[in-house]
Amino acid sequence: MELVRDGLNRYRIPRRGKMRVDAVIYVNDYLRRFLGEDKALEQLMNAACLPGVVEPVIGMPDIHEGFGLPIGGIMAVAPDGVISAGAVGMDINCGVRLIRTDLEARHFNKSLLRRLIERIEHYVPTGIGKKGKHQGITRRIFEEVVHRGVTAVIEAGFGRPGDEEYIEEMGCLPGADISACSRRACERGEVQLGTLGGGNHFIEIQRVTDIFDEELARSFGLFEGQLTIMIHTGSRGFGHQICTDYTNKLAAAAKRYGIELPDRGLACAPIDSPEGKAYYQAMACAVNYAFSNRQIIMADVARAFADVLGQSPEEMGFQLVYDVAHNIAKWEEHGGRRLLVHRKGATRALCAGHPANPPVYRRTGHPALIPGSMGTSSYVLVGTEKAAETFFSVNHGAGRLLSRTAAEKKITKEEFERAMGDVVYNVRSYKDLLDESPTAYKDIEQVIQTLVDRGITRKVARMCPLAVVKGVD
DNA sequence: ATGTTC
């Protein structure tokens, strides 16, 4: 593998063979040594072979092997190019939402934290295959939700009017059309709205431990010692079914259009073809569903806090800071060109003043939310003007070091408990938790620092976990 | 990530 150093913390794989453009990877010396351990770079080079791809295909410092495009991959495509389901991912609009409060974390001891996470679990179903507790409402508004996004669930009573101003795309990606979603996808989606799911998804109660930029932190409503809440989930079985359906449809379409696929996981079709358009319409449905899923869960978490603390959400200063997508394809303008940017395990991070920011964060740049692995710190970042070189994107997390199966084999219960330290968590079966052990992930500090040193992002705040609700049976 | 091995 030819990796050519291209400035600080940046390496280039020059175009060769069927690659149409170069690939670029952001790693520091610590992270660089992990690059050969999986197929992530080959997958990045495969993506560089697709029609219409725009220079460069990008790997973030948390890059690791995925389905088609690696997790931590960014692929921008010109309008005459292709759209790929595998380049968005199985969990469409997997993403993160950060909630601020006026509460001080020092008042929350372990027993109080335990009562809180137990109450959160009372309201929010967690684990694979779980069904929602608001089905009476969510089944009725499902079609509205996929077309109109969070506004539909706010109108149904979850959260407050105006919350949508604190969500990427205002909580609704345009162009959604439910007729592009299979019956099976809709059946899975209807009953799972308002559920957390499994894997790396979580609800976390955190303490703000570090403020790196006072002025920005104040603009985002964050202060040292503050209690914050982070919700990490996506589109559940709905998005999963859409990705599965369309990987099959797009693989067949690629054949018809004479597109050579370097990997079935990168199944794609021209953006303007009927198949490509249909995938976009279905993907947008799942994007809107996931924003809405996080909105419902936020309302349930607010209810859990109100029950335990005896205060209303308003009295607690409960307020959405921002909600970002980590797996999405969107039309954006870059360097005067309109591009379809696929981000898979990557976060949009616009700089201050960028016109695509939501109005509430236009002046500062919106918060980019980066969850740590279980038991480790999460970050609030902001993009800089130099982030133009990554299509205004940063990483999405720490990045896996061990695959799920490798982690299950290698990590012991004792190692897991040591790594979790004082964090309160909802364990019932270690089987479901070991593959999410912090020791199965890379060091988030190194991942963030790689991009900070490169100058494409700035740290605003760091939060450490106090208690975490994971998807366990 | 996932009614996880359609």
UniProtKB/TrEMBL annotation:
Record's signal peptide: none
Claim: Ligase is one of the keywords in the record: yes
Cofactors demanded by this protein: Mn(2+)
Biological-process GO terms, alphabetical: RNA processing; RNA repair
UniProt superkingdom: Bacteria
Entry keywords, A to Z: GTP-binding, Ligase, Manganese, Metal-binding, Nucleotide-binding, RNA repair
Residue positions of the active site: H396
EC numbers for this chain: 6.5.1.-
Keyword Manganese: yes
Binding-site positions, Mn(2+) 2: H232, H326
Residues engaged in binding Mn(2+) 1: D91, H201
Reaction(s) this enzyme catalyzes, per UniProt: a 3'-end 2',3'-cyclophospho-ribonucleotide-RNA + a 5'-end dephospho-ribonucleoside-RNA + GTP + H2O = a ribonucleotidyl-ribonucleotide-RNA + GMP + diphosphate + H(+); a 3'-end 3'-phospho-ribonucleotide-RNA + a 5'-end dephospho-ribonucleoside-RNA + GTP = a ribonucleotidyl-ribonucleotide-RNA + GMP + diphosphate
Cofactor note: Binds 2 manganese ions per subunit.
Gene Ontology MF terms in the entry: GTP binding; metal ion binding; RNA ligase (ATP) activity; RNA ligase (GTP) activity
Xref: Pfam families: RtcB (PF01139)
Residue sites binding GMP per the record: 200-204, 326-327, 371-374, 378, 396-399, 470
InterPro entries in alphabetical order: RtcB, RtcB-like_sf
Stored PANTHER family: RNA-SPLICING LIGASE RTCB HOMOLOG
Subunit-structure text: Monomer.
Similarity section: Belongs to the RtcB family.
Protein name as catalogued: tRNA-splicing ligase RtcB
Organism: Ammonifex thiophilus
